[in-house]
Amino acid sequence: MSDLATPTASRLTRPSLRDSRLIVGVLLVLASTVLGAVLFARAGQTVPMYAARGQLVPGQALTAADLVRVDVHLGDTGPAYLSAKEPLGADLWVLREVRPGELIPASGVGARSAITVQPVTLLVDPTSAAGLTMGSVVDVYVNRPAAKGAGAGGPDLAGPERTLAAVTVGRVEEAARVGVASTSPRSVQVLVPIEAVKGLVADVDLGAKITLVLVPGSVTKAPS
Fold it and tell me: In CA terms, which of 70, 71, 86, 191 is 20 to 30 Å from 176?
């Protein structure tokens, strides 16, 4: 019976630096380490930005007193907001509503010529004005006098019609300044699109009853 050949065990060799797989692996580890360090460093960086100290409404002149500096992490979205790295520019006006504590959108401020609303002061029922404050958003309903010739027992008003939707309240007359009678009308300033001012003024001149209806989710006055 002949002897079977015994296979010779091959000796394991240490990987050489010339091994392409080893080189690629080392490069991947180095790249991930560097990338992780860069991301960690960027995550720890903050940038100074402007935030609203209080409620800002369209058509309002923007001053340093209206703003507070905050240091935040914004990443690539930084240019979308007003930076506090430089002093506040002159002749800046608020173009859209900004709530207290919110960052100031760069698109939300601009020159006076860019303002698209005008303040119109309306006398409204005190119930209609209850809870309203600067920055509240309301729908404006107009109830015009009935046409002449209506029957003696007919209504004095033709019926309410929503003439403006989602306009911002600029100012509300304090109840303490209205007078003794709680039923006295309250004056409320609303910011009306420029093209709609003429029609609203005409309704006021006609003696129409104006009612403001709060839009759900809008800011309201805190209970006293």
Answer: 191
Residue 11's Cα: distance from chain center in Å?
Answer: 71
CB 63 within 8 A of CB 88: yes
Give the structural domain span for 81.
Answer: 47-113
Q: What is the pLDDT of residues 24-71, one digit of tens each?
A: 666 777 777 766 655 555 555 788 999 999 999 999 999 999 999 999
**Residues near 187 by beta carbon (within 8 Å), at least 6 away in sequence:** 121, 122, 123, 124, 172, 173
Name the CA radius of gyration of the chain, rounded.
33
The SS3 assignment for 52 reads: strand
Neighbouring-strand partners of residue 210: 142
Query: Cβ atoms within 10 A of the Cβ of 85, count?
Result: 9
CATH of the domain at 85: 3.90.1210.10
- Cβ 122 vs Cβ 209: under 8 Å: no
Predicted model pTM:
0.69
- Tell me which residue has tokens 């914004």: 74
